[in-house]
Specification:
This protein is α+β, with helices and mostly antiparallel strands and 537 residues long. Helices cover 37% and strands 28% of the residues. The chain folds into four domains: 1-52; 55-163, PAS domain (Beta-Lactamase, 2-Layer Sandwich); 183-283, Beta-Lactamase; 302-526, Phosphatase 2c, domain 1, CATH 3.60.40.
Amino acid sequence: MSDTQDRINALERENEILHRRLNDGENACIRLMEERKAAEERLGLARAIVENSPVMLFRRRAGDDPALEYVSDNVRAFGYEPDELLSGTLKFEDIVHPDDAGRVEEEIRRHTDSGSDVYTQEYRVLTRSGQERWITDRTVVVRDEDGQALYHQGILTDITRRRQAEEELRRNEEKLKRILDTAAEGFLLMDLEMRIIDANKALLSMIGYSLEQIRGKTPVEFASPHFKRFLLANWQELTAMEHRRFEGSCLHRDGHHVPVLVQGNILRDENGAPEGHAAFVADISEQKKALRLAEEVQKSLMPDSTPHIPGLDVAGHTLSSAEVGGDYYDFIPGEDGLNVVVGDISGHGVDAALLMTTARALLRMRATSPGSPRRLVSEMNRQLSADLDGSGRFLTLFLVRFSPERDRVTWVRAGHDPALVYCPHCEAFTDLGGSGLPLGIDSDTRFEQNQTELLPGQIIAIGTDGIWEAASPSGEMFGKERFRDVIRNHADLGSKQIVDAVFRAVLRFLGDVRVRDDVTLVVVKNGDRDASQPSEA
């Protein structure tokens, strides 16, 4: 009985072990099925990605019979069925563009002979409908343990759009180069250090050198001495500007100077980072000739001599920031005394010079008739307001009339800085002030007329803001205090010597910096009552 029970217990234990093994096997089977399902899903996803991408997969045998063993289904994008290529009905070389077939075959042979394991080609294929498509072929060589090539496999990527974009870019670059090469203006392409990379024919003709002779050099090396000093003094400021525009002169290879207008800018990449500089350089020789003629005409309109008024020592001078300027001064004798005028047209250049000429004609025409300074300025303002309406231009003016007896002065200030009066006896300055808008703004402006006594030895200086607003290389302004100091220190000299001293001081203060605004100064020095001659002019 006990043997039987023992046998039953043993069978039950075996049964439990079998059940456990069966459960373990079932669980393992389930895991395997789940893993297989996941792998199939991943494979399906990979196939979907491949089939819907411009990338085609291939595998072909190595050796003398390079038959395809695999090609992805998305070869249908070219109008071909995978079975055509796999069965040999259609060979891959048959769809390579005839103009590229020889090159492709030669490249494959060269890579094979050299033992390359990876190589890339770009070539065209023809779709079934005859369209050209550019592809990149990246091939990897699969070898056995002895190093013998078994397969060539890899990916084909349709790069037609990229090649079309590159071709369009190439055509645009060629078009741009033709435009630049045939442009009348010179063109410079430079790196971040302002070293020349490229230049067009107009620029090379402008300086008389070949591209090989100037490549790697900076524009400073082809500047005239004065322009070179300007560039070196302002180099950091100029190269940091996003856009820059200035005039200068190049030094031609044969030694003559070529006046130029330079318009440059910083070149930036697609991320906005600076990658170089570009500049258009225009030869303005003809414009300069015209401006020199205009300058001669304008100078002819300035007083060619100082008036000889017994007891009055009169002198004036102007320095334009351009060939022609907008500053104006004049001496106009009349029945009621000597009229001394200083004006400043807004802006400078040819248009300012034309306005100055108009203002001079109006003033001289009116000043020869009787009338007060206020009436003279008011009539001039009405005419200029009509002429300048909507232009944004205006004229500041200071007119002072010296009585025939030289015992008083009458003046009108129209938006101009007050004239300075220096008395050497008391060593003090006073202003000839007063209210009044510039001319050309409002035709109904009422101008204030003032009068004061004129004492022997007094000096009256009427200037434009180009004097005290002149800026040194560091940006510091000359200022009115320096202006007063020069007058005070030279008060014992004649008017012309005082004017010359002021201009020397301003130019010395500027250093290598060009005058940026017109500079004009008139000085009248009242002599003793019995004086009969002005100082040496």
